[in-house]
Structures are given as C-alpha cells and as structure tokens.
C-alpha cells in the first residue's frame, strides 16, 4: 500500500492505496465520486476525463499514486458553490449535447480544458480537440455546437429543430 | 392533427433529464453500492469452437476474497434468454456446456468480495480445450460439411427458405445484378452491459438493477427462467448509457441472478469494454444477392433477392431479421410488382447476432438503394429521376405492399424535393463535373437515398395521477435511455392539463412503480407510449371536468382547462378551481384523479425520408471524407423538434460510420481482431461533419399524435446515401460497386482496377445450396410472425 495525498474538488484527501489502483478507480471507489465514468480498457473513449492541475487527463491512464500531490477537478466539482451549472454544462443543456449522458462528464471536462487552452476555436478545432472522447448517441453535432457557443464562435452548423422545416 | 391545447408540444423544450447527468449524478448500474455486494467476473473462451475437456478451478478458489468459482456443471442454470427463438434446436446455455461456440463464450463464473479479486482469480482458472473446426464466413457456413454447432441441424443452416414470386424478372428488358455485403458491426453503447442483483430486500425476492431497454420484458423473462413469480421480482433500469437495440437480459445476467439467489448476497457484474465487444450481440451481417429487372424506360418490373443472414454463435436472434424486417421492407419506397426473397440463416463461430439501431431495416434500404443506383448507372438515367419514376405516390396510401407491409402514409417525392433543394443538388452535380473535367485529385461523390422503414406497432400503458398539491405524476411503460421521454411525455401531459412542465413528475423504468409496459425499442416510444400518455391524460381531464361541473353547478361541456393550472367555466374567469383543489375533492369522495390505461393495439407506422451525402475521395490514397450530409426525415407529427434532431444526429453518425469505417472482423480461426476500442473503428467528432436536418411532416393515421418513430430512421437513410456517394465519386471510371465499409484500401483498389481495366464484376451467382431450400410453407409463416412480434 502506498500513501497518496490529493486535492479533489477543493477538498484534501489522504489514503493508503494499492500501487496498481487506477486514478479513476480511486475517484469512483475510494472517494465515491461516481460522476466520472469508465467506457473502455484501452484509454480510447475519454469517459473518464478529469482535470489534473488544470489540464484534462484520462483518469484511467494514470495510477492513483501518480496523482500524489495533484489538484483534481471532477464533474462533481465543476458547478459553482451555489450549485449553478458551469457555462459548459449550461451550453450542453441548451444545445441538447447529451442524450444518455454516459460520455457527458468526460466530454464536458475535455471541453472545459479545450476552451481554456485554445484562445480561438472554430468547428475544426473543436472537433479535433475532442477527438479523444467518444459518444455513441449524439453524432457529436450538438456537442460541437455547445462548445462553439462557449467559444463565442458562431460558425454556421445548423439550428436545433429549426432547419428548414417544411410541412407537406 | 393537433397534439393538444397547450403550448409545449411541437416546441424544442430543453430536457428535464439533463441537470443530474450534467452534474455527474447519474445512476448508472456501476455506481450502485450495496452492503455485502459481491463482484462477478467471467472466464471466456479464447477459442472459437472447441470441446471443453476439463475445467480446473482449484487455484482460483483458493485466492483471497474469492467466494465461489462455478462452471455449468456446478450450477443448475437455465438456458440463456432470447428475445426471439431462431429455431427450437438453437439453444444457448447461460454458461458453456461441453463446447464453446465463439471467442468470448462465458465458461466459468468467479464471485469474489471485490472486482479486482474476481478478475485476479479468473486468470487462474485452467480450461483444457480440444479445438474443433471453425466456420467464420456466413457463406461457407452454407456448406453441409461445415463444422456444425447443433448436431440436430446437420450443418450450420438454421433456416433455409424460398419465398415470393417464382419468376420475378420475367418481362424485364434489362437486369442489373449485385452482390452486397452488409458487414457485421458492434453496437458499442458507451456504457456496456451491467447488472446488480439483490436478493436481500424485503419487498421483493429479487431486485434487479439492469442496464436495459425493456425492464418489464426482462422481469418476465428472468422470472420464467428462474421459476419465480414475476410479482416477486423487481427490475429497475436506472440511467442507461445507451442501448441501440442490444441491451436486454443476457446470459451473464442470468448467471448473476442465479448466483445472487444461491449465495443470498447482492451480486454485481459490469462488463469491461473488451468483453463488451465480443459478448454483447453484434448487428447487421448479411450477404445480399440482388437482381432488379427493369424496362428500358426505367420502370421496375421485378426483383430477385437471395440473402444469407449470419446468426453467429448458438444462432443469435438477430439472425432472424433478414427474414423479418429486411424482407418486410425489401420493396422500399417503390412499386416493384414481383419480388422473390430467398433466405438462408446460418450459425457461425462468432459473437451471436442481435439487434442494432434499425435491426433489419438498414439492411433492406442498403440493398434496395444500391441496386437502384446501379440500375441508374446501367440505363444512363439520373438516380434521382429513376427513383421518382418508380415511387409509390401519395394518393396510394394506405397500401399493402407486395411484401405484406401495411404502409400507413407517405409522400416520398416531397422529402426528395426538399433534400435536393437543401443540398442544392444541381450545383453539386456541376461541381462534380468541373472536378472531373479538371482531373482533380479530390473527386466529389454525391449519394442519394430515399427510404421507408417500419416502427412501433402494438400497445402501451400509461398511468396519470393528479395530487392534492397540484402536481401530476405521469407514468409510461416505455423506458428511455437517452431519448428524452421524461421531457417529451411531460410536454404532452402538460398541454392537456394546462400546467407548466415543472408541475409534471415523470416516472418510468421500474416494474415496482409502473404496472406494466413493453419498454423502448423499434422506435416505438412516442407513437405508443406518448399516445398512451395523451389518452390517459385526456381521461383524467374528462373525469375532472365532470367533478368541476358538479362543484361549480354547470355542464361538463362548459368546463375548460384554463391554461393557468386551473379548471374553470368557459367565459366566466372568476369561476375556476385549481388542479390541487379538484384532486383533493376527488380523493375525499373516494375516487382520486388517477387513471391507468392501455392503448388499443395499433399497426406499425412507416417513417420515410430522403438523404443526400456528399463525400470527397482522394484518388491517390482512396481516403473518403464525408463533407456534408443533408437529411430530410419524416416521422409524422413532432412533439419536440430538438429531441427529434438529436435522434437524427445519432442515427446519421451510425449510418455514415457503417458505410465508411466500422466492421467487426475475425481471422480465419475465429479470433476477433477488432475487440478493443483501439482497434474497432468507431468515429470521433474529428471524422464526422456537421449535419443539415429537416423534416416533412406527414401524419400517421394510426395514433392520436400522428407520430412515427425517429430513433433509427436516419441510420436507415444515411448508410446507402454515403455508400452511393463513394461509388458515385468513381462512377466515371466505370466503378459500379464498393462494399461497406468503403475503406481507403477498398476504394484505392477500385480506382487502380478501373485504371487497369480489371474491375471485378459486382455480381456472382450465390452458392448452389440456396437453390435447394424448400418454398415457404406453414413453418416459414410462423417464423415471420415471431420476428414481427418483438420490435427492437
Ligand atoms: S475509460 Fe476509456 S479512456 Fe478512460
Ligand atoms: S450521450 Fe450517450 S454516449 Fe454520449
């Protein structure tokens, strides 16, 4: 067993963990922060994405012990102290960027990080920036719109529910 | 047709489901912790076909934390559940018995105090296999000598049948022929299968938290398999991380339930992704031999189809889809006066087949739309014109097709006109011409598809209750897993009661809370569950009006829903009672405002649409980039256009991806070679374009909402549009067909062969065994009914 000390969503934690324990298991099983999901076993899906010292990482690619001393933000720590949704969460809501919601925590964290890193983002930039996060429900269309809305970019990617409806 | 008096239906109301999911408060099965809960893990076969000579679990049993290690011999296990029986002989045990039939077949179950302990112990189980002959290719499985899975079938052909016209091509001036592969794909919901079975509760003998689409169906199936009274079993589908046709009670779920009962402790099983890719049923998997006869002017005369459907290991129920929905929809949107449809359904040593988004309908649209494009090419007619010429016309509905489908309503030309307008089809053709003339490296392909599919059919349950605080509980027997029923169905009810959405509490997906239901699948939910909610709400409103009439001393006809949460007398604004007040009086009189109601059985509805796909093909590398996709889908009257477009987007991604990238592959020995997400080509945002979506709205006459399904339509329409676009990009070289997925290698080979003048013939005769099957008789008809009775 190895001792790890981490700050998660603003609170400090110290635990003895098995050296082989993944960070995502530590978050989900030890801390009970089950908002972070697991979607694969090959670091391919991004469902487990969290912020580690401000940058997005797939928490299944790190051992818990590697996070020793780090500050982590998970989906549970994203909304404001008053419980208000973070602007990226709000944009996902407004643009219908989630369906089953399984990819959503990871997708939102990846988007938060992308928006923080890139000064300017166009559609291509968003699509490539989210390449590591898979979603089977949305076809990504509304996820891209939500992130672009946050970036302040109004690239024309179609209006939800309003595209040229023609009654017959 | 109007949905209701209120203002919610038809508008893009934001989802009530979102806040919990956005905050990480999802209730996905793996998030559940119960005291004393054990973890289950499986040892799966690494060999595609073998006799199990021995199983040694001694070392595994001795591992710390291990509670038990079981093979089929150690447990009295029922057979694995099947949504539909393919053949009485095709039975799958819940744990492999004597033989294994595919890589991933579960052989041994390990139960331990923790997941890590269960997985560690599973690695110590020693199984000795004696390899048997393997058949992977579904056409090779037709060979009587291919290694059989069921002795009593005498080979791998589970069903072989010839149906329909004996001579459908008679009178044709031209016959176009193609052999098409509709490849096997993996479903890949982002959450895999998951179950927690709890035998320790007091109210029920067994409480099952199952990631599934149809909790009531799962409860009935599980209770039957375990010999329990279904009233003593509770099934809850909590948040479900996508399903797409594949999430039902599984073999592993039965083992988990049996072990929970044996051990008297809660048991959790959560699939890993690598397990999921071999264990969860796969979809599609057909080889289609199609011949279309036409007159010189392009009029369709008849079509002959000879189809091989892969059922996978043990004869998975998805094998039946070729004889069910694919056959039913073989006529598409056209007049085709005579159709022959011969079918072989075979077992192979691969993952069992099931349902995947569209379940038999994308396979139909794929071959119909492909052969129509080939015919257009052959006759030198624009593919759009050839389609138009053969459309079933709007004034012909309702009609029964040659295949026996009762098309309810449609206007195929309107959808086609709209998609061509939105895509600016003529401008695209001009640009294509220019690129061809210039000999650009990047050539443009324009693909058109016009499709019809089948959704819903049957009945559904709803319950609506008004409480004395004015809130209204709405329940339905459908079970959403991303579709947004809580929002859409609340919109429907809120309109009837004239209250804000927030006043509605929507309940679903728990057999203890919802009396009955058929769940969600086959794009049935709005047209059946939504209609049930509408009808039940109306019954409650009727009852309330009678009561209010009595209380306010007026006639029930004069009582109106005011729209501000009250019931009042028409034209007398001061005379009104709130819903809470009415509910209170009703309860005091012993007749609370609560109605349970089942809709009458309704026929299936037939959504349709037209898609235009635009792709760019790199003539030097064969790489295809989807540039644009314009989809016009007609799902009748729309309750929430935002949710409808969301369904379309997801469906488009699936369809485009099957056309270009996804394929589940095996080597000749039956070893899967795409069994992780690192290898399986599921697209990210970077590969897909944004979509243009629009809708024509042709109401269905078959339900009060006028709605048709939309969950799968875009997959049905997009797959052939994209494949047609790829072939179209190369048609000036003489390329007539490229099989899906249209990978760079396949496209590059087609380009090179065209340049060398060595293009392969897109046709070859099917295997001779196909000619020897009996013609359809009583047995065949029975099978078809079976296939239609469950919609996926
Ligand atoms: S769980 Fe898939 S990348 Fe981490
Ligand atoms: S919303 Fe279901 S996987 Fe993305």
In short:
The complex is a heterodimer of chains A (168) and B (792). Chain A has helices at residues 23-30, 87-94, 104-117, 123-129, 141-151; strands at 2-8, 11-17, 49-52, 55-58, 71-73.
Layout of helices and strands, plus pairs?
The complex is a heterodimer of chains A (168) and B (792).
Chain A: E1 2-8, E2 11-17, H1 23-30, E3 49-52, E4 55-58, E5 71-73, H2 87-94, H3 104-117, H4 123-129, H5 141-151
Parallel strand pairs in A: 1-5
Antiparallel strand pairs in A: 1-2, 3-4, 3-5
Helix pairs in contact in A: 2-5
Chain B: H1 18-22, E1 38-44, E2 50-56, H2 58-61, E3 66-71, E4 99-100, E5 106-112, H3 115-122, E6 126-131, E7 157-164, E8 174-185, E9 194-198, E10 206-210, H4 215-226, E11 233-236, H5 251-263, E12 267-270, H6 273-279, E13 283-294, E14 300-312, H7 325-328, E15 338-347, H8 361-379, H9 383-390, E16 399-400, E17 406-407, H10 412-423, H11 425-438, E18 442-452, E19 461-466, E20 472-476, H12 485-497, E21 504-507, H13 525-552, E22 559-561, E23 566-569, E24 572-578, H14 579-588, E25 594-598, E26 608-618, E27 624-634, H15 641-660, E28 691-694, H16 713-730, H17 744-756, H18 778-789
Parallel strand pairs in B: 1-12, 10-11, 14-15, 20-21, 27-28
Antiparallel strand pairs in B: 1-5, 2-4, 2-6, 3-5, 7-15, 8-13, 9-10, 9-12, 13-14, 16-17, 18-26, 19-20, 19-25, 22-23, 23-24, 26-27
Helix pairs in contact in B: 8-16, 12-13, 15-16
Bound molecules: FE2/S2 (inorganic) cluster (2 copies).
The pair of chains with the biggest contact is:
A-B, 67 and 69 residues
Q: How many distinct helices of chain B?
A: 18
CATH fold name of the largest domain in chain A: Ubiquitin-like (UB roll)
Spatial order of strands in the largest sheet of chain A: 2-1-5-3-4
Major beta sheet summary of chain B:
7 strands, mixed
Helix proportion of chain B: 25-40%
User: Any idea how many domains of chain B?
Assistant: 3
The CA-CA distance between the termini of chain B, in Å, is 28 Å
Number of strands of chain A: 5
Uncertain stretches of chain B: 1-5, 778-792
Q: Portion of residues in helices of chain A?
A: 25-40%
- In CATH terms, the superfamily of the largest domain in chain B is Aldehyde oxidase/xanthine dehydrogenase, molybdopterin binding domain
Low-confidence stretches of chain A: 153-168
What is the percentage of strand-forming residues of chain B? 15-25%
Rg calc of chain A: 17 Å
Overall form of chain B? globular
Count of separate DSSP helical elements of chain A:
5
List bound small molecules.
FE2/S2 (inorganic) cluster
The CATH class label of the largest domain in chain B is Alpha Beta
Backbone structural class of chain A? alpha+beta
CATH arch. level architecture of the largest domain in chain A:
Roll
